[in-house]
Amino acid sequence: xxxxxxxxxxxxxxxxxxxxxxxxxxxxxxxxxxxxxxxxxxxxxxxxxxxxxxxxxxxxxxxxxxxxxxxxxxxxxxxxxxxxxxxxxxxxxxxxxxxxxxxxxxxxxxxxxxxxxxxxxxxxxxxxxxxxxxxxxxxxxxxxxxxxxxxxxxxxxxxxxxxxxxxxxxxxxxxxxxxxxxxxxxxxxxxxxxxxxxxxxxx
Length: 203
Ligand SMILES: Cc1cc2nc3c(=O)[nH]c(=O)nc-3n(C[C@H](O)[C@H](O)[C@H](O)COP(=O)(O)O)c2cc1C
Hints:
CATH architecture: 3-Layer(aba) Sandwich
CATH class: Alpha Beta
CATH topology: NADH Oxidase
Number of domains: 1
Shape: globular
Radius of gyration: 18 Å
Number of helices: 7
Structural class: alpha+beta
Strand content: 5-15%
Bound molecules: flavin mononucleotide
Order of helices and strands: HHEHHEHHEHE
Distance between the termini: 26 Å
Strand order of the largest sheet: 1-2-4-3
């Protein structure tokens, strides 16, 4: 039974060569993301994870904002190289923005003060699980995707993104995933040995 799932997670890869096309209708993209948000686990079932799908001109608007912010003060060769990458991220069919709701995290920390310091870490675990679920599901639909933090988006940029898309001020950005039908297969991936990364003890 687990073979199908394991095959699916092996298919998920980072792909930067995206086209402005989708292999599935927008309704399917929405259904996938909704299902992932609903079913992915969160610590104490706080349901702190958020996802926002942006498509077409809204996606272009998002990446124009990110590019403007990311290119501030970057000159010469570095600017051209960065611009090229940003153009590729924004050149897909859409993006999924992932957030964690700080208000939810704060409220569970108040309810369970003995664990307060752990909730921010568990919240980043939760958004990672959600990102993986969406990324894998998209791969199964023939969509390429990658995960962008752009060296962590500035607070000012995230505030602008929230304002532009009418998102609550308590939503903390955790990653942005551009996606689209791939123009080329992903780059080769090297795998180190599994031995130091996994152990089993059995009597
Ligand atoms: C937590 C996390 C953060 C990442 N951040 C970025 C990023 O900001 N930019 C990027 O291009 N890739 C990012 N990646 C993608 C990794 O570089 C990529 O997953 C890794 O090289 C393995 O390749 P694969 O995704 O094809 O398996 C991130 C991946 C993870 C899990």
